[in-house]
Amino acid sequence: MPTEDSDAGGEQRGLTNGSAQPNESTHLLSGLTSHFRSDSNEEPIWKDQNKGPWVRWPAYAGHVALLSLTNNYVNVLLVFVPLGIISGAIEWSPTVTFILNFFAIIPLASLLSFATEELSIPLGQTIGGLMNATFGNAVELIVSIVALKNNQIRIVQASMLGSILSNILLVLGCCFVAGGLRYHEQTFNSTVASTMSSLMAVATASLIIPATLYAALSKSTASSQDNILVLSHGTAIILLIIYTIYLIFQLRTHTDLFDDENQADDSEGGEEHGNPQLDPWSAGAVLVVVTVLVAVCAEYLVDSIDSIVETAHISRTFIGLILIPIVGNAAEHVTAVVVAYKNKMDLAIGVAIGSSLQIALFVTPFLVILGWIMGVEMTLHFETFETVAFFVSSLVVTLLIQDGKSNYLEGVMSLGM
């Protein structure tokens, strides 16, 4: 089990996609692993060659399950997973189905992050970072794909914007406040922060331009929807190219810019970092199982949205903008605040800004391209209010992080937005 000193070694991976580090999670009931050890020599049963495979394999499966399930306090909500699946399968009330699957996806998102981190550690910095970048916001991506398949375009757009705003305003503000109340002033890598804010400005422009085109063509006889669709497809391709180049920049050509904090810790004589708790095959198996469960729960969650809108009089915008981002990011948000309180602001910035960047530059354009393939008119034209809110929020965050310093007053300003 990694020690507290190993936290610093995980910061590089956190900056890639802003996902929660396994060594930042609370490992519960770790003493229970003794139940999977042989009584004779204290060697784990699954390593005891004197035992048959029908004993060793179940023991090892139990060990992997125990490590995964006790990784985080939020996993107590896993009880909602079978309830949510059963409610959708036997067609309970749509409201009950929505609520059960809503709470079911929260711990599954935490497990998905844990499995991704465990699998990325032995793969090396480049492959591991690329994997983190791919699976960092897998829950939002899965839910959005299901919604896109059901032609719930409004839900997809609102959830993407909600995830971005919750990260750059709510999470970042809470990080600044939590750290600022304990420390007079905190510092972080201003070069990384500046790079991220510049990329966020590019993502903001990708939403402003389609909205501007729509306003310009509103009184024209030309079909504005067709033009916006073509513009969105082209913009999505460009954003995906930019994101790919950013990954190359971070993981290959300019890794030193993102590795300052790790080097500082190593110079202080820190211990060896980043020891995985699960072997790659076990982590991969957990990743596959959890992904399937997320897809099933997301299917029932999205299917119940129409009934929720009609019976509870909740708008699709509210569901996408507020509720769905909570589902995918709850555990990650708590981790960001905890590491900020521990004065690990580079990791906190990576969680807040890095996750927003991934959604803006990868997930959203990917969904536009996927909609193009599926014949669904998913565009980058958001509502005017949402576009303005995104622009102002990005501007405020850029001004807050450009000096590489933070305090609780800046956190309050971010939360005030």
Structure description:
There is one protein chain. Helix 8 (190-217) packs antiparallel against helix 9 (224-253) and helix 13 (316-341) packs antiparallel against helix 14 (345-374). The radius of gyration is 22 Å and the shape is globular. The longest helix has 30 residues, at 153-182. It contains 16 helices and 2 strands. Residues 1-40 and 260-273 have low confidence and may be disordered. It has 417 residues and is mostly helical.
What overall form do the CA principal axes indicate? globular
Sheet with the most strands: spatial strand order: 1-2
- The tally of beta strands, per DSSP, is 2
Number of helix segments? 16
Poorly predicted ranges: 1-40, 260-273
- Topology as a string of helices (H) and strands (E): HHHHHHHEHHHHHHHHEH
State the share of residues found in helices, binned by percent: over 70%
Category by helix and strand content = mainly alpha
Overall radius of gyration: 22 Å
Specify the biggest β-sheet.
2 strands, antiparallel
How far apart the termini lie comes to 40 Å
Oligomer: single chain
Mean pLDDT: 76
Strand content: under 5%
